[in-house]
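re: ur question from the group chat, yeah i did fold both. here u go
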Amino acid sequence: MVEVAADRLGAYGYVLTGSQSEAEELVQDAIVRVFARRTRFEVPAQAEQYVRRTMRTMHIDRMRREALWRRVMPGQAREESRADD
């Protein structure tokens, strides 16, 4: 059951990020965040729903931070993208 949920969460993360490595990182970060705050779920499917919601929220927050960074420091954002190439 855990493997099936992990596959579904990974696929959802990939849909959000478009990158396998970013998706894996997003899944791990969301799982840590959810289970650090909540120790038990009444229904196991509830845990997956919480992780999905957390993934979506974390991804949206990251995209907003990146957009803000590009507006505030446009030259810096361009410099970093060139360094990655």
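okk and heres the other one u asked abt
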Amino acid sequence: MIRNLKIWQKLALLAFAFSIPIAVLLYLLVAEKNIAINFAEKEKMGTVYHRPLRKLLEAVPQHARAAAGSEGASDSASRADAAIRELEGLDQQLRSELKTDEKFNALKDKWLELKSKEASAGPDVRRQLHADVVAGIRGLIAHVGDTSNLILDPDLDSYYVMDAELIKLPESQDLIAQTLQYGKEITARKALTPEEKTQLIVWLGLLRSNLDAVKAGMKLAIDNNASGSLKPLEGQVQNYAATTAAFLDLTDQRIANAPTIDLTPEEYEAAGVKALSASFGLWDEGTQSLDGLLQARIDGFNSRKFNTFIGVAGIGLVTLLLAWFIVRSITRPLAEVVSVANRLAKGDLSVEISATSTDETGQLMKSTGDVIAYLKETASVADQIAAGNLSVRVEPKSADDRFGTSFKNMLDSTLSLVQSRDERDELQKGFMTLLGEISDVANGDLTVEAEVRADATGAIADSFNFMIVQLREIINNVKETTQQVSTSATEIQTTTETLASGSEEQSEQITETSSAIEEMAVSIQQVSENAVLSATVADQARTNAKQGATAVQNNINAMQRIREQVQETAKRIKRLGERSQEIGEIVQLIDDLADRTSMLALNASIQAAMAGEAGRGFAVVAEEVERLADRSTNATKQISSLIKSIQSETNEAVAAMEDTTREVVEGSGLANEAGQALTEIEGVSDRLAELIQSISQASKQQARGSEALAKSMSVISGVTQQVASGSREAAVSVKGMVSLAETLRSSVVAFKLPETNGNGHHRNN
């Protein structure tokens, strides 16, 4: 079927075949760009959904603090309700894409439950209800980050901005809000329990770790932002870091580790609100910057896709124009040569042709022109001979010009035989007869043979017959040679086309493999970078664990000193009880002395009465002594009552001090367990840092190996493409050779040859 197509149709088919892989590659490229664009647009959905969640995350802790103080609770509740309504409208639009309906409904139910129960609930229940709502908000933020592709952001700068907004900042805001509410209650009552101190120390450690992670992540984002659009975030990060550090120092120095709490709730709340405002300010600025990065990425993908379309269209147009010119430069000369050959085959020697180029078609046209000139020259000589002019001369064009040599020999033989006018007349008649016999040769009929007579034309006829035999052999050889050339060239063409197709497939597979290896290298590089960052975070966690362990140890030491002081106080109170017991014994002795004095006074009064007038003065003294004894007895009774009260209160104080000592011992044990846990965390962090470092080194080695493999695959792909290109060029050359052989065969088809019998001799039809 392909053999019956014209050259321009074959070239058009070849161009169409080459355009198919280009179209497929263009489709795949556009599809890839569309996937990246859809990925970034879905990320933008996540940032849009996060905005009302940010308002809600700010309003709910404000409502918790206001509800605890019974001031401004309605304003914060109104802001929270407005955020819920805004979030509900967005959820109706985006729930099918982000799959948020279940978690949003759960969050809404928690907020309604809080509003219905907060008026009658106690402080602990109210605090738990607010914590549940905040947990629901953070859970919905994380869920939207997962379903909107934000958590999978591929660029380093936008990834760390996303990480801060999706994970770090909400956690920081929750910790600041809880610490602020806890600290306000402590500053209000000016007292701190061991449990509260431990809780504050834990929160402060988490906040410091979170602050360091936010600063490190934002620094990486800004440093790796090529466009410089994240530069404005530096001021917000510094403000957030300064206000949060100030709040942490205030909590640590004037509440958690302060000898006495002299900080007012208003001062403490102002510092906490300032840190929260800076955190939400960083969130707002980061969200705007993240939207800008995502939009820039989408615009870049669209621009590259448009440029790709324009480039491919331009290349395709240039290719079509070039192919059109090439086809015309081949088909027009070939068509002219074929037309001339057809007219020559009909015996028309009036045609003319001239070469218009120096390529193969130009050479073919020049050779055809030379053939026409040769045939015209031969025909002119034949015409002169036919007119009776035997004085003409014929010179062969070369040693291989068998036709010219035979014609010259024929003419020479004719001239040598002509001796007289009669002979010439006779010869002329013979020539006319001979010309009549061989006239069909001019029309390409090589089946005719001249009759060999005994006259002078016999030698000419014999030479002519010999020339015809030679021409038959030449034409047969040309036909056989063109047939063999055409068959061999077709086989070579099929082989080269198969080789080119295989090379192209191999090149495409190598290109796909190279792309996959490059993507793997990029992924491994990202894993390495994330591992390095994880190692940094693990090191920070280890440092924080050490700080926590130190703080817990200080707390244990402080509790130990408190226990020793309480035990010393209990000993003194016990000794005071023992002294009061001794005082009771002394009072009992005084009471006995008073009783004896009363008895002596009674005896003295009896003796004075018995002495009469002489003992009157002594009786007065005895009466006074008795009154003194009564007063001493009453005083000893009061002292005894007071001593019993002191002993009872002393026993109660001793029991209270013993209870306090037990609580201190229990608190010391809890703090010791916390210290052991932090020590274990420190060891795990060390091991984790070592493992992450090993992962990072292995990832770097894999990345280097992947890059080397990608380069090798690229070199192999280039060599394969060169092989495919060479095969295609060979196929084109072979096609040209097939076409030329076909044209030559068409030219000799016009010659009529006799059939060949079995012994190789010709037989006329």
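fwiw on the second one: The CA atoms of residues 178 and 231 lie 31 Å apart. The domain at 521-721 is CATH 1.10.287.950 (Helix Hairpins). idk if thats what u expected
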